[in-house]
Write a structure and sequence with these properties.
With 359 residues, the protein is an alpha/beta fold. It has 2 domains: 225 residues, 3-Layer(aba) Sandwich (Rossmann fold), CATH 3.40.50.1100; 101 residues, Rossmann fold (3-Layer(aba) Sandwich), CATH 3.40.50. Helix content is 43%, strand content 14%. It contains 13 helices and 10 strands. A 6-stranded mixed β-sheet has the order 1-2-10-7-8-9, sandwiched between helices. Strands 5-4-3-6 form a 4-stranded parallel β-sheet, with helices on both faces. The mean pLDDT is 95.
Length: 359
């Protein structure tokens, strides 16, 4: 048997292994949040994936895409640039296939994520600043004769946006029996841009009236790029919110799919995540708080127009991944982050269905 045939047999088995893993995993839950008023808020809880985050879907798609393109063989080391969650999920799939996995991440990545990468058999390779992850990942993959997965380039094309069990199809299917089955808005953040690309394309392909809102950290370039296509990169401090918002406009981010972009301060993201955790009884990470803060503004617009309907957003991962950072009051105080005014505004939002941001 030739080497090519052996690799093809291994690829067939690898695809089957990933598909079998998917078959063993139920879909994630769509929760209705306890919000007053005429607009219903739903939260898609992606923390219930086997690796605990929305990035589980992306990692599965990236591995299938790379396998079916012939980029990965039975001895190919996998290298990925990540802020943590994608690396956790890719480490899981690499171990399923018996492959070495190395995550290239900023040193500021939460210790909990680093520990999860190790738990799934992955290795962590640190750089000093987020902007260094791309070149270092490519260099390391070349040095090891490995494959740089490059989520920031391939996220938008690795997922079949027309259907086939993607997150958009799941949301619309789960909403089918609700009083307002077609959401007025879906609110999501962007790290690679793959999720917003999948949602926006699915909405257009199925001719749904739903609009797509980008929830973006204030320090990110994405919301600026939506407003002005000439802005493609930013200098300065990065956001405290891991997993979403970037200093450069990633290849997978498609601004033409965004109907509204809302910039969210880090303190608002963290405060909103804390309130949602209390209201749902489920721990929520900072990017979920970013989504919720933007949801409140979208819902306020609907309420001010005396409109009813539904809004859907994502619970991206658990707040337990940030226990030593965003979940630690002393760490936040040292970072100069005060969440109390934002928590108060969010509590009022849940109690009344109306939103007034703090001054």
């Amino acid at each position: 048997m030739t080497s090519l045939c052996r690799d093809r047999d291994w690829i067939d088995a690898a695809v089957q292994t990933i598909e079998a893993d998917f078959n063993r995993s139920a879909d994630t839950h769509l929760l209705r949040a306890p919000l007053a008023g005429a607009v219903a808020l739903y939260v898609k809880d992606e923390s219930t994936h086997p690796t605990g985050s929305l990035k589980h879907r992306l990692a599965r798609s990236l591995f299938l895409y790379a396998l079916c393109n012939g980029w990965i063989g039975p001895r190919t080391p996998i290298v990925e640039a990540s802020s943590g969650s994608t690396a956790v999920s890719e480490a899981y799939f690499a171990r399923l296939l018996g492959l070495r996995f190395i995550a290239v991440m900023p040193r500021s990545t939460s210790p909990e994520k680093v520990a999860q990468i190790g738990f799934h058999g992955g290795e962590s390779h640190f750089v000093d600043s987020p902007g260094q992850v791309y070149a270092e990942s490519a260099r390391l993959a070349a040095e090891l004769s490995g494959h740089y997965m490059d989520q920031f380039t391939y996220a938008e094309r690795a997922t079949d946006w027309r259907g086939n069990n993607n997150i958009a199809e799941s949301i619309f299917s789960q909403m089918a029996q609700e009083p307002h089955p077609l959401p007025a808005w879906i609110v999501a953040g962007a790290g690679t841009g793959g999720t917003t690309a999948t949602l926006g394309r699915f909405i257009r392909y199925h001719r749904a009236p739903t609009r797509l809102c980008l929830a973006d950290p204030q320090a990110s370039v994405f919301h600026r790029h939506v407003a002005d296509r000439s802005l493609t990169a930013l200098a300065g401090p990065s956001s405290l919110i891991e997993g979403i918002g970037r200093a450069r406009c990633e290849p997978s981010f498609n601004p033409d799919l965004i109907d509204r972009a809302i910039a969210v301060p880090d303190a608002a993201s963290i405060g909103a995540a804390r309130v949602l955790s209390r209201r749902l009884g489920r721990s929520c990470g900072g990017s979920t708080g970013t989504n919720l803060w933007a949801c409140a503004q979208v819902i306020e617009t609907l309420a001010a127009e005396n409109r009813s309907g539904s809004v859907v957003t994502l619970l991206c991962d658990s707040g337990e991944r940030y226990g030593s950072t965003l979940g630690d009051d002393a760490w936040l105080a040292a970072a100069g982050v005060e969440t109390a005014p934002y928590e108060a505004a969010m509590e009022t939002f849940f109690d009344t269905g109306r939103f007034t941001p703090p001054l």
